[in-house]
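Hypothesis: this fold can be encoded by more than one sequence.
Test: take the structure tokens below, design a sequence, compare later.
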């Protein structure tokens, strides 16, 4: 028997579906008004949203009445755990135009109220940001949520409540207006696994993913910048499987190394599919302009430095060139691959979706001198430049490059023991940001 008091339907677009449960009388009234306004011309009972374009996003937000636009090209520098010192200012001077401070957790207090824990000293952060501003170096400042071995967001509270707690923390607690720091321009998702296989954080719950997705959409409504930094295996166009475990092995490494079961299987693709777009809520606009989809995630940083990654295997074990490996990866990300979310009934998202990421929303995640040990991929600036030049010729130019981490700038790797690795300045040599 159908429940005539409540109807459940989907808004559908090529990139997003939203399940709506509402009162049937409200729906009938809504459609009647729309039909009366629009008449019979061009009004359809099926909502079709405009397909996302692959042009660069123009995401902006305003704090201190200053609007911030993501640059056409980015060099993203991650601070190390709780890092706050003058080396961050130096990295910005050398080329970094997006700093991601590291990192906070979304938790609860003893009464179950949402709280923000962890992160660098905010007095120091404000001082460094003030120094950067005084040098007139336009820079976006984001705060990372998560990190390896970090607790996943607590999901006792609703995503809206948790988002409001983060927004309050950002504007009222982290901010230091007296130093010209009015809060971070947004946040970067870095929810990952744990060294201990039995730790529950090696499995991402549905509630956690839904909180991440909905919080991101709430943040976009407030014009924050929202990014994500999945490990290579969390958004993997070489595999069509999907689950939420972070304890998988890569088949190609099984005969080369002892068991390394810390990979995911496309866990973040659920975020891109279900929450990858949002509809801005604006005032005094027509129905047509208020139903245009925009991307929720301003850019996606693919961590090629995940332990024993596909990229590491192809370059170091199969002797493929970095140009060939990264070009093939971006072609696959742009072309798209199918994910069957029906494999996970707990998602309540019974769809097979094609995941596609425009090249201008892709950021290639690199490591500096701490890597290059056979487990973690290291590419030197000269190698990255050759990759970039090839991608430009193929019209697959990414938004830019990110690196972990600023504290380790200038370190020498085992690959070239006498050559310090400076990614900020090395990337800037050909991206020409500073």
């Amino acid at each position: 028997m159908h429940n005539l008091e409540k109807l459940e339907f989907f808004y559908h677009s090529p990139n997003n579906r939203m399940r709506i449960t509402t009162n049937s009388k409200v729906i009938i009234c809504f459609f009647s008004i729309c039909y009366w306004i629009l008449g019979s011309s061009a009004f359809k009972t099926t909502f079709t949203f405009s397909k996302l374009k692959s042009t660069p996003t123009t995401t902006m937000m305003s704090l201190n009445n200053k609007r911030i636009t993501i640059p056409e090209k980015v060099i993203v520098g991650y601070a190390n755990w709780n890092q706050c010192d003058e080396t961050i200012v130096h990295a910005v001077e050398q080329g970094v135009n997006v700093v991601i401070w590291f990192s906070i957790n979304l938790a609860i207090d003893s009464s179950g109220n949402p709280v923000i824990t962890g992160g660098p000293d905010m007095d120091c952060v404000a001082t460094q940001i003030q120094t950067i501003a005084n040098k007139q170096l336009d820079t976006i400042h984001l705060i990372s949520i998560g990190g390896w071995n970090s607790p996943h967001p607590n999901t006792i509270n609703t995503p809206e409540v948790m988002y409001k707690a983060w927004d309050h923390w950002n504007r009222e607690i982290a901010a230091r207006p007296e130093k010209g720091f009015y809060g971070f321009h947004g946040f970067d998702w870095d929810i990952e696994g744990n060294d201990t296989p039995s730790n529950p954080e090696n499995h991402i719950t549905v509630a956690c993913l839904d909180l991440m997705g909905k919080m991101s959409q709430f943040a976009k409504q407030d014009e924050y910048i929202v990014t994500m930094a999945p490990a290579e295996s969390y958004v993997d166009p070489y595999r069509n499987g999907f689950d939420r475990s972070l304890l998988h092995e890569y088949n190609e490494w099984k005969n080369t190394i002892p068991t390394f079961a810390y990979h995911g299987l496309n866990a973040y693709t659920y975020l891109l599919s279900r929450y990858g777009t949002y509809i801005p809520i604006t005032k005094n606009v027509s129905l047509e302009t208020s139903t245009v989809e925009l991307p929720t995630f301003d850019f996606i940083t693919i961590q090629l430095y995940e332990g024993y990654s596909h990229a590491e295997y192809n370059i170091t074990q199969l002797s493929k060139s970095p140009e060939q490996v990264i070009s093939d990866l971006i072609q696959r990300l742009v072309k798209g691959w199918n994910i069957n979310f029906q494999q996970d009934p707990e998602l309540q998202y019974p769809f097979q979706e094609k995941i596609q990421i425009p090249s201008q929303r892709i950021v290639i995640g690199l490591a500096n001198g701490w890597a290059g040990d056979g487990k973690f991929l290291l590419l030197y600036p000269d190698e990255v430049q050759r990759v970039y030049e090839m991608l430009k010729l193929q019209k697959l130019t990414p938004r830019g490059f990110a690196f972990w981490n600023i504290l380790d700038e200038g370190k020498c790797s085992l690959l070239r023991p006498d050559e310090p690795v400076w990614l900020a300045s090395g990337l800037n040599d050909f991206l020409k940001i500073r």
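Confidence is low (pLDDT under 50) at residues 1-65. The chain has two domains: 1-48, 57-431.
Hypothesis status: open.
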